[in-house]
Amino acid sequence: MLYPKRTKFRKYQKGRSKGSHAAAQLCFGKYGIKSCEAGRISYQGIEAARRAITRKFRRNGQIWVRVFSDIPITSKPTEVRMGKGKGNPTGWIARVSQGQILFEMDGVSLSNAQAAATLASHKLCLSTKFVQWS
């Protein structure tokens, strides 16, 4: 699973996703999956999408994961009254901006990469699109 060994703080504020274009172009592979909206992706979603791509490729080709879940998410237990502070960390998320490349692929055919991208996009909670290096 993708999450950091250590963080500066145990709990973070929610924050807002911005429209940054820092990772808006393909850098490593020929094909990629690009987010169409800003949002948050859990570490389970990233791992599930990565596994779906790997299984579709049958361990051929290469995959680069361009997002990393480095922000802890907290939640309070069920049936607990309001107040008494913030809940305990329960998972990790990655903030994703619009137009950010999430995954990159190389070493496979175009049709195989498109099929893998479709499988992976079903695992993610954001709308995505398939991009090709030109």
UniProtKB/TrEMBL annotation:
Keywords attached to this entry: Mitochondrion, Ribonucleoprotein, Ribosomal protein
Is Ribonucleoprotein set as a keyword in this record?
Answer: yes
Q: Please give the InterPro entries that the UniProt record associates with this protein.
A: Ribosomal_uL16, Ribosomal_uL16_bact-type, Ribosomal_uL16_CS, Ribosomal_uL16_dom, Ribosomal_uL16_sf
Q: Which Pfam families match?
A: Ribosomal_L16
Q: Which GO terms describe its molecular function?
A: rRNA binding; structural constituent of ribosome
Top-level lineage group: Eukaryota
Keyword Ribonucleoprotein in the entry? The reply is yes
Its GO CC terms? mitochondrial large ribosomal subunit
Indicate what this protein is called per its UniProt record.
Large ribosomal subunit protein uL16m
Identify its protein family: Belongs to the universal ribosomal protein uL16 family.
Any single biological process term in GO: mitochondrial translation
Compartments in which it is found: Mitochondrion
